[in-house]
Specification:
The structure holds two protein chains of two kinds. By secondary structure, chain A is mainly beta. Helices cover 11% and strands 32% of the residues of chain A. Chain A has a single domain (2-66), classed as Ubiquitin-like (UB roll) (Roll), CATH 3.10.20.30. Chain A is built from one helix and five strands. Chain A has a five-stranded mixed beta sheet with strand order 2-1-5-3-4, with no helix packed on it. The radius of gyration of chain A is 13 Å and the shape is globular. Chain A starts with a strand and ends in a 9-residue tail after the last strand. By secondary structure, chain B is α+β, with helices and mostly antiparallel strands. Chain B has four domains: 7-91; 100-228, Ubiquitin Conjugating Enzyme (Roll), CATH 3.10.110; 246-291, no CATH class; 331-378. Chain B is built from eight helices and 19 strands. In chain B, the strands form eight sheets. Chain B has a four-stranded antiparallel beta sheet, covered by helices on one side. Chain B has a three-stranded antiparallel beta sheet with strand order 7-8-9, with no helix packed on it. In chain B, a hairpin with a 6-residue loop joins β18 and β19. Mean pLDDT of chain B is 81; it is low at 330-377 and 382-387. The chains are: A mainly beta, B alpha+beta.
Chain lengths: 75, 387
């Protein structure tokens, strides 16, 4: 099934991705953010916080935003 | 509160944001149009050269053909550049302009994510307030992230948002730095830069605010305007006193920082140097840095460059004294000899002898002086080591 995934970790692009039916948010996160800890991210489905065992549905809008991003000094 | 968003105002703001996003999209196409136009102009010029070259070849006009070939060579370079720029411009990701309802939902989400979503109507500024930020024990206060809606359509997003410290605790070293990554209300987004730009371009206002908050609540000590360690002022490496920005001096020799009392500067090159890194020249007694110190070629003593160039080392100044002393000692005997000579050879025009004797004596004395110069001044009292 197809969902809209907005990955704010990196370039921040939004794209449709295919996920297997029954995929939970937790599993989807692990697939998309390799090596990341869920507690270091804000995960929203259809703009709402959801439990990690929430099962994704067709057409869901999933956003993953890191809570810790390194700023820098302007060059 | 007047600045709070509600109902109708929310729709108005969402509409204003969407209009700006439309401008962004239009600007992208405008830029692509410009680049394609530039490439097209180059191609037209190339076509003109082609026609002329055909004519020259047909009529055997080799000189003119040569000029056209040179022109074509220059044009190909320009074509290469304009082709790449055009490709870049048209290859940029399509900007999808969300509908007003999508933008409205972004604003509603922002209201839920952040306790206070404000709108300053006069300036068309949408803002959220973060919780108080404390990084590694340094309290920085809360910040207002202001998004200037009217500036959204401007390229680069440089003036689109500002970070205001509502309870400022700026660094002692620089009052404009209210956060390690905020200077003069400008955030250096670092790793979040690309995501912020993409979020703004796509009208994902809530994502934008969340990303900015993620930068403000994190600390990158490797790239901060002022590090948290120096937030309350750096300490002098010598006396340990806390220094403000205007009273901090960097020693170019040892790379440490010093207060005004403990720092100085080299008398030769003017470089800021701490007192510990300055050396006193034994000749001129000026204090100079290591870079301006050298050694005397004669005795190896440390000396400043100017004194070396002017041969002012104490070892060189002692030699003429020694020579003079010897001259004094020997010239007395020489004079007596000369006088005796005069008495003996009275009437003879032997002025040359008088002159010669001292000269000869001086010559021999000079020779002895030269021999003495080869002996270190400290060893003059020792048995002479003359060949």
């Amino acid at each position: 099934m197809r969902i809209l995934f907005i990955n704010n970790d990196g370039g921040g692009y939004a794209d449709y991705v295919e996920v297997a039916p029954g995929t939970t948010v937790d599993k989807f996160f692990s697939q998309q953010i390799a090596g990341g800890k869920a507690e270091d991210y804000l995960i929203r489905v259809n703009r709402q916080p959801v439990p990690r065992d929430y099962v994704l549905q067709e057409g869901n809008r999933v956003t993953i935003t890191p809570t810790k991003i390194e700023g820098a000094v302007a060059a | 509160m007047e600045n709070e968003l509600s109902g109708r105002r929310l729709w108005q703001v969402a509409g204003a944001i969407r209009d700006q996003l439309h401008t962004i999209r239009l600007n992208r196409f405008r830029e692509a149009q410009g680049q394609v136009q530039s490439l097209s102009s180059d191609l037209a010029e190339l076509e003109s050269i082609r026609r002329k070259l055909s004519l020259c070849v047909a009529r055997g006009w080799t000189a003119a053909a040569s000029g056209l070939v040179e022109e074509a060579t220059r044009l190909f370079r320009s074509l290469n550049y304009s082709s790449q720029e055009a490709e870049k411009a048209v290859g940029k990701p399509e900007v999808t302009v969300p509908n007003v309802r999508d933008v409205l939902e972004e604003l509603l989400q922002a209201e839920e994510e952040f306790e206070k979503l404000r709108y300053y109507r006069e300036d068309q500024i949408l803002a959220i307030v973060t919780d108080a930020v404390e990084l590694e024990g340094v309290y920085l206060g809360d910040f207002e992230v202001q998004l200037h809606i009217a500036a959204l359509g401007a390229p680069g997003f440089r003036s689109t948002y500002r970070i205001l410290a509502l309870d400022p605790h700026p660094s002692v070293r620089n009052e404009a730095v209210t956060h390690p990554h905020v200077s003069e209300e400008r955030l250096c987004a670092g790793d979040a830069g690309a995501a912020i730009d993409t979020a703004l371009t796509g009208g994902r206002i809530c994502d934008f605010f969340m990303l900015v908050r993620s930068v403000l609540t994190n600390y990158n000590r490797d790239s901060a305007y002022v590090t948290l360690e120096d937030w309350d002022g750096a300490t002098c490496h010598d006396c340990g006193s806390v220094m403000g920005e205007d009273d901090t001096y960097y020693c170019t020799s040892c790379d440490y920082e010093f207060c005004g009392e403990c720092s100085s500067c080299c008398s030769r090159c003017g470089e800021t140097t701490c007192s510990g890194c300055l050396e006193q020249c034994p000749a001129c007694e000026d204090h100079v840095c290591g870079g301006c110190m050298t050694t005397c070629p004669e005795c190896g003593r440390a000396l400043c460059r100017r004194c070396r160039e002017e041969a002012r080392c104490p070892c060189l100044e002692e030699e003429p004294e020694n020579e003079e002393e010897s001259n004094d000692n020997n010239s007395g005997g020489i004079r007596s000899t000369a006088e005796g000579g005069e008495a003996d050879g009275a009437g003879s025009d032997t002025g040359l002898d008088e002159a010669a004797a001292p000269v000869g004596a001086e010559a021999s004395e000079e020779g002895a002086g030269e021999d003495r110069a080869s002996v270190h001044p400290d060893r003059l009292g020792e048995t002479a080591l003359l060949p």
